[in-house]
What does this fold into?
Amino acid sequence: MFIYGKTNKNSYFKYCCIYKFVVVFIFLEKGYKVDNIIIKEASPEDALARIEYSKKIGSETDNLSFGAEGFPISVEGEEEYIRSVLKDERSCSFFAWRDGEIIGDVSLSGMPRRMNHRAELGLTVLK
It folds into this structure.
């Protein structure tokens, strides 16, 4: 398995690295072989793949805020969202890729100002 991301963020980047390992353990639990999985930081070029992934993951469970229709956002909107995450030093997003498709994602969104000691964690993995 190969894991990479940028290193110019503060300690939140280190926390994201920890969560990448959480993803690896979930993949192992689901029976995936991790030698062919690449985990990389999200980029705007991944927007279409992430929207397609949201349709797959949304069809597998009723426990998300969206269903088989996926995210209610355009590709351009998703690109802008990813750019905003990249710019925010308190947030990060990573995708797990296998054979050119997203099979999992993890994001950490830091809270602003007086709540900056808190963050929201999101994690999904295909069945």
